[in-house]
Amino acid sequence: MQQKNGARKNYILDTNVLLHDPGCICNFKGNNVILPMVVLEELDSLKSREGLCGCQARQAVRELSKIVEGRSQQSIQAGIPFEKNILFRVEPNGYHNMPEYADELDLKKNDNRILLTTLSIQKKEPETTTILVSKDICMRLKAEVLGLKSEDYETDRVILDDLYQGHTTTVFSSKEIDKLYESGLKCPKKLSLCPNQFVLIHARDNPEHTAVARFDGEKLVPLRYENRMAWGLTPLNLEQKMAFELMMDDTVKFVSITGGAGSGKTILATAVALEKVVEQRAYRKIVFVRPVVPAGDDIGFLPGNEEEKLRPWMGSFYDAIENLMYRERSRKPRKNCAEDNVTVDSLIEHFKNTGVIDMKTFTYMRGRTLSDAIVIVDEAQETTPHIAKLMLTRAGQNSKFIFIGDPTDNQIDNSLVDSRSNGLVYLVERLKNSNLTGHITLSEVERSPLAKLAECTL
After folding, report:
1. Which of 12, 138, 216, 250 is the most exposed, fewest CB within 10 Å of its CB?
2. What's the rounded Cα separation, in Å, for the pair 434 and 452?
3. Residue range(s) defining the domain that contains residue 29
4. pTM for this structure?
5. CATH number where 78 lies
6. Per residue in 361-404, pLDDT tens?
7. Structural domain contains residue 194
8. Facing residues of 373 across strands?
């Protein structure tokens, strides 16, 4: 978003840009940032909503108030100097100045008001390049049809194909591989590794001789939990073993796991959490978190208390616990699941009553500090970078956060993000160089042959 060749540009922001990143204005270094009045009106109507959309709208309003506080009406319309040589102003609805479009565009629609305000600015200031910034593809298409330049908001974007995978491969001699299990291996300079990244090692002199190591920040070390189980569950493939290693290690405070449907993200995370809390007592409780996307944002209108409202959103966690209970072909529950006729609902109810399990949406987490807990955030690809950051700031002493999700576009319902701009990929890339974090991408579908066929073929 930075100026090119020293020429200032007019960037007109659509409402969805501020909802995606409430602090977006500071990312337009050396340019003019303009908000049509209708954008403020939309933020005002959205700020009272529940869920992520309302949260983002309120934060955007707070950020804007910091800029305009104490300023006169004239200065707000003329332009307020802001950090990074940014000039910020609010533009009164300029669509009245474009009567030639009155028959083409329905002015009752806010998108059309924003478009015509942008056209009005372009008409008044022809010497300055004017660009509409929007997260809405249709909005950008309409802008192009009207002769306007338009852009997506690209700050903090990550190309999904370039996303950090959490593992790599290399070649050592058989003798060096043997040394791995004795004292660890010094990392060769040619390997540029992140802390807690995994390395699949092949023997140079014997391709059948392999090993898997983890980089501890200084050297390559063997896996510590390779032959362990969690609440009766054993990892089914190499990538699952890597994810299992990160989740079982209490020194790794943040773990992110990406993968398609049926790759085992939720059941692995749930099994480790139950093992750590119920069996090992390493943490006091498990907090399951599910972002409620804007399409179904207002759970306040659903009947029942908070717990009853959340039940439809927490189906993946219920399914994971049920599958763990009846994982054997004999369909026998685990011994610690009490009687043979125990149900997943009764077990979860027991865990809730004893404080072992808590289920929340992010709306109910605001202002809380989560200490002595494992926090599993499912469908994390639905969060914006701002919301993902806010979730992590809930971390208290002796807490571990596990973010899981599928960041491909066909698995994202939140219109404010896509595969390149969601909070999950943002955290993966931003945190990969810390020894407190680890990431793994799961590529194998293990749910069933049919699930694998559907994921890979359809």
Report:
1. 138
2. 34
3. 9-151
4. 0.84
5. 3.40.50.1010
6. 777 777 789 999 999 999 999 999 999 999 999 999 999 999 99
7. no
8. 285, 399
